[in-house]
Design brief:
The chain is an alpha+beta fold and 754 residues long. The protein is 18% helix and 32% strand. It has eleven helices and 41 strands. It has an eight-stranded mixed sheet, with helices on both faces. A hairpin with a 5-residue loop joins strand 10 and strand 11.
C-alpha cells in the first residue's frame, strides 16, 4: 500500500459522516445506516499512524453494536426481498437435501455406531446396532435437546467395552463444548458434566474407567452474554483425565505449561491401551511436539494420581516445532508415524522408543503425490491415501515394510471418512464427489484381492449426474505457476462468455479443498446455468507443504494472484465475463475474497465473503486468532506489519474511481455487489471482522461521497445463534444458501431454468 493511500485512509476517519449517493436495487435507492466514527482511535504501528474508527464494533455485548447489527439486517432483508429466485432456491435446495444421509460405521466391542440424517433433520443422529445385521436404534438424538436445532453433537467417543458413550455438545455453533456420559445399554445419562471444553479429543483408557480431554479455564465473568459471543484470547489450555462418576473438580490435571500460554494439548490413547500420547500445538502450522506416557508403568496407575498433585510423567519424544507427527500404529515400543520431517509431501517413518534417535523410512516421500493419511488395519496392513493433482488415490500397503499390495479403485472426489482400526479386517470408506452425493464402501482386507463393495449409497431424488460435466484445467498464475481448477457445468455448454459463474477458493493453512457434493451448488448449475469452479490456489495443502508455504506470511499475495488469474482464465476461455462472475470463500477464503475485491474490483460481478478474517492488524487479539500468526504473521512485528498492511481487507478499501490499477490505467469502475456474512456465535473468526469491514466499505465507497459512482449494494448477513459453520442446523444452512445465492443471481442477472 502506498503511503498516500494510508494517509487517505487516516483522513477518512477525520471527516464527518454524511449521507451521499445511495445504492440502487430495481431503481429503488438503499439507505445505508449511519454508524458512529470514533476519530480518536489511531494506533501507532512502527511509526505509521493507522485509524480504527469502528473499534467499538469489537464489543459484541454493547447496545450500540446490537443496534448496528439490527439496522444492517433490516437493510439486507430489504435487498433480499427483491431477489426473485430466493424462494425457488430455498424450495429446490430443500428438495435436494431431503434424502437419507449416512457416514461410515465404526466398531466397538460387538456394536457398530454411525451418524444418520433422515433428510431435513436439524442435526445428524447417532445410531447403534449389534453387528452389521442388527437392528439400528437411536442412541443420541441432538434434535431433542433444543426446539430450534441449535444444539449439536460436536464430538463423541465410545469406551472400549462399548458400555459408555462420552459426547460433547455445542450450542449455537460455538467452539465451546460440554461433555456428558451415557450408559449405552439403557441410554441413560450419568451425572458427569464437563464444562469449558474447547479444541479437545475424547480418548478412553482401556480399563473403561474414564477418558482424557482438554479444556481452557472458564472465561472471565462478563466476557460474553453466553459461551461463543466472547472475544477474549483462548490461553492456558490443559489436559485432564476424568474418572466416571466423579465431579469435574476431581479430574486429574495431566499436563499444563503456564510458561507457554498459547500451547494446545491433546491426549490420545494408543490402540493397545498402553500409552497416552501428548500432541502439542502452538500455531496452525503442520508442526507439533510429541510426548508419551507409559501408563502401564505407573505404580498405581492413573488411580494413584487422584492423591497426587504432580503432572503425568510424560517423556519427550519430539520437543521442537520442526515438523508434524501423527501416530499410525505401534507394536509395544515401536511406533509408526506420518510426518513431513524432511518430506514436504509427507512420508511414513518408524522409531523404537528404546532408541529414540534412530528413525527409519517405511514409505518414503513420493516425487509428486502427497501422502494425506494412513490407517493401520487387519493386523499387518494399512490403507494409505495420496492426493495426485487434487484427486485421491487409495492403496493397501504392508504395515511393516511399506510395500504396495493393492490399488483400490476410486472416482474423482473426496474421502470424507474411514473406519479402520488395527484389528479390523472389514473397513468402511466414505466417499463423495461433485456428482456423487455419497457412497460408503465396505472393503474386506482378508480377501485375496480386496474389492470396494458398496455398503450404502446415498440417493438424491431428482438428481441425474449425466446432466453435468466435470473437468479439471491447469491455468497459469501471475508468476507462471500452473494452478489446478475444477469446473462443473451443465452438459455440453457453449463457451461464448454468456454463463453466470461461481468461483470458489480458500488457499491457506495447508488445507486441501477437494471435490464433494453440494446440494445448493447443484441447484445453481441445474436451474440457473451457473458454471461452478473450484480453484486450488496456493496456500492450501494440495501439493504438500511447499504449496502451502508458497502463499504464507510474506508470500500471501500469491494466493490472491492465483485467484485473480483463475477469474481471468474463465473469462478468456469463454466460460463467463466479469459482470457474470461471482467469487466466494469462507474463513481464510473470506479473507481471499476481501483482498481480491480491493485489488481487482473491475474483475467481478458479485462477491460473497463468509466469516472472513478481515482485520489483519488485530486478528491475533481475539479467541484463537493468536494461532494464525504462523500463517499470516503479526502486526506487532515490523516486518510482518509491512506485508499485512498491503492486503488487509479492512485497511485497503479504496475508491477505485480515484485510483489507478496495476495497469496504470484510470479505473472508472465501482466495487462489485458484495455480501459479507458472519454469525453472532462465531468464536473462531469473531464477527467484528465482518462488521468493521462492512461499515468501512459503506462509508468509504458510499455514504461519505456525494454522487458516488458506487451504486452496487454493499450488505451484510449476520446469522443469529450460529457460529463458524460447524453444527449449523439444516434449515439455517438452506436459508443462508438461498439468501446468498439469490443475491448472486440478482446481481449477475441469472434467470431461472425449469
Amino acid at each position: 500500500m502506498a503511503k498516500q493511500d494510508l494517509n487517505l485512509l487516516v483522513n477518512f476517519s477525520k471527516r464527518t459522516q454524511t449521507m451521499g449517493s445511495l445504492a440502487v436495487i430495481d431503481d429503488e435507492p438503499l439507505q445505508y445506516p449511519v454508524a458512529r466514527r470514533d476519530d480518536s482511535v489511531v494506533d501507532d504501528y512502527h511509526g505509521m499512524q493507522i485509524a480504527d474508527p469502528y473499534r467499538w464494533l469489537e464489543d459484541p455485548d454493547a447496545e450500540e453494536v446490537k443496534v448496528f447489527v439490527q439496522n444492517q439486517m433490516k437493510l439486507t432483508e430489504s435487498v433480499l426481498e427483491k431477489c426473485e429466485v430466493r424462494e425457488k432456491l430455498r424450495e429446490k435446495t430443500t428438495e435436494l437435501l431431503d434424502h437419507p444421509r449416512f457416514n461410515a460405521p465404526f466398531k466397538r466391542g460387538n456394536k457398530y455406531f454411525y451418524m444418520h440424517n433422515s433428510g431435513l433433520q436439524a442435526q445428524n443422529v447417532l445410531y447403534v446396532q449389534d453387528g452389521l445385521d442388527g437392528e439400528a436404534e437411536v442412541l443420541l438424538d441432538p434434535n431433542r435437546l433444543s426446539k430450534d436445532g441449535t444444539i449439536s453433537l460436536s464430538a463423541f467417543s465410545v469406551s472400549e467395552d462399548a458400555k459408555y458413550l462420552s459426547y460433547a455438545l455445542s450450542s449455537s455453533g460455538s467452539d465451546w463444548q460440554s461433555i456428558r456420559v451415557m450408559r449405552i445399554e439403557d441410554k441413560n445419562d450419568e451425572s458427569d458434566t464437563l464444562s469449558w471444553v474447547k479444541f479437545s479429543c475424547i480418548s478412553w483408557t482401556h480399563d473403561n474407567k474414564g477418558f482424557f480431554y482438554s479444556r481452557f479455564p472458564a472465561p472471565k465473568e462478563g466476557a460474553g452474554m453466553d459461551a461463543g459471543t466472547e472475544t477474549d484470547s483462548n490461553l492456558y489450555h490443559e489436559l485432564y483425565y476424568h474418572f466416571l462418576g466423579t465431579d469435574q473438580s476431581e479430574d486429574i490435571l495431566c499436563w499444563r505449561d503456564p510458561e507457554n500460554p498459547k500451547y494446545r494439548f491433546y491426549g490420545h490413547v494408543t490402540e493397545d491401551g498402553k500409552y497416552v500420547l501428548l500432541h502439542i500445538d502452538e500455531t496452525c502450522d503442520p508442526v507439533n511436539k510429541l510426548y508419551y506416557c507409559d501408563m502401564s508403568a505407573l505404580p498405581e496407575g492413573l488411580d494413584g494420581y487422584r492423591k497426587r498433585t504432580g503432572l503425568l510423567p510424560f517423556v519427550k519424544l519430539i520437543d521442537g516445532f520442526d515438523a508434524e507427527y501423527r501416530v499410525i500404529a505401534n507394536d509395544e515400543t515401536v511406533f509408526t508415524f506420518l510426518t513431513n520431517k524432511d518430506a514436504p509431501k509427507y512420508k511414513l517413518v518408524r522409531v523404537d522408543l528404546k532408541e529414540p534417535r534412530i528413525w527409519s523410512d517405511v514409505v518414503p516421500e513420493a516425487e509428486k503425490d502427497v501422502l494425506t493419511w494412513a490407517r493401520a488395519a487387519n493386523g499387518s496392513q494399512m490403507i494409505v491415501s495420496y492426493l495426485s493433482d487434487v484427486k485421491y488415490i487409495l492403496q493397501i500397503r504392508d504395515l511393516n515394510t511399506g510395500s504396495l499390495q493393492h490399488q483400490l479403485p476410486i472416482d474423482i472426489g473426496t474421502i470424507l471418512g474411514i473406519s479402520a482400526r488395527r484389528n479390523d479386517s472389514i473397513v468402511f470408506i466414505h466417499f463423495s464427489g461433485f456428482l456423487t452425493p455419497g457412497i460408503i464402501y465396505q472393503c474386506n482386507l482378508e480377501a485375496e484381492v480386496p474389492n470396494m463393495k458398496i455398503f450404502r449409497e446415498i440417493s438424491v431424488p431428482g438428481f441425474d449426474r449425466s446432466d453435468f460435466d466435470v473437468d479439471q484445467v491447469f491455468y497459469p498464475s501471475k508468476d507462471g505457476t500452473k494452478i489446478p481448477m475444477f469446473i462443473v457445468t451443465r452438459k455440453n455448454i457453449t463457451l461464448d462468455g454468456s454463463h453466470p459463474c461461481l468461483l470458489y477458493g480458500y488457499g491457506g493453512f495447508n488445507i486441501s479443498i477437494t471435490p464433494s457434493f453440494s446440494a445448493s451448488r447443484t441447484v445453481l448449475t441445474r436451474h440457473l446455468g451457473v458454471v461452478f469452479c473450484l480453484a486450488n490456489v496456493r496456500g492450501g495443502g494440495e501439493y504438500g507443504e511447499e504449496w502451502h508455504k508458497a502463499a504464507q506470511l510474506a508470500k500471501k499475495q500469491n494466493c490472491f494472484d492465483d485467484f485473480v488469474s483463475a477469474a481471468e482464465y474463465l473469462i478468456s476461455a469463454g466460460y463467463t465475463q466479469p459482470k457474470k462472475l461471482c467469487i466466494e470463500g469462507g474463513s481464510n477464503g473470506g479473507l481471499l475474497i476481501g483482498a481480491c475485491i480491493n485489488q481487482r474490483p473491475d474483475l467481478f460481478g458479485c462477491a460473497l465473503a463468509l466469516v472472513g478474517v478481515m482485520d489483519m492488524l488485530r486478528f491475533h487479539k481475539f479467541t484463537i486468532g493468536h494461532a494464525w500468526t504462523s500463517e499470516f504473521g503479526c502486526s506487532e512485528n515490523k516486518e510482518d506489519f509491512h506485508w499485512l498492511i498491503k492486503y488487509s481487507p479492512l485497511h485497503n478499501v479504496r475508491r477505485p474511481w480515484e485510483l489507478r490499477l496495476e495497469s496504470d490505467q484510470s479505473c472508472q469502475c465501482q466495487y462489485p455487489p458484495t455480501m459479507l456474512l458472519t454469525a453472532d456465535h462465531d468464536d473462531r473468526v469473531v464477527p467484528l471482522h465482518t462488521l468493521k469491514l462492512l461499515v468501512t466499505m459503506q462509508y468509504v465507497l458510499c455514504t461519505s461521497v456525494k454522487n458516488s459512482p458506487q451504486t452496487n449494494p454493499i450488505i451484510g448477513r449476520i446469522e443469529c445463534k450460529a457460529g463458524h459453520g460447524a453444527g449449523r442446523p439444516t434449515q439455517k444452512i438452506i436459508d443462508e444458501a438461498a439468501d446468498r445465492y439469490s443475491f448472486m443471481a440478482k446481481m449477475l442477472g441469472a434467470s431461472w431454468i425449469e
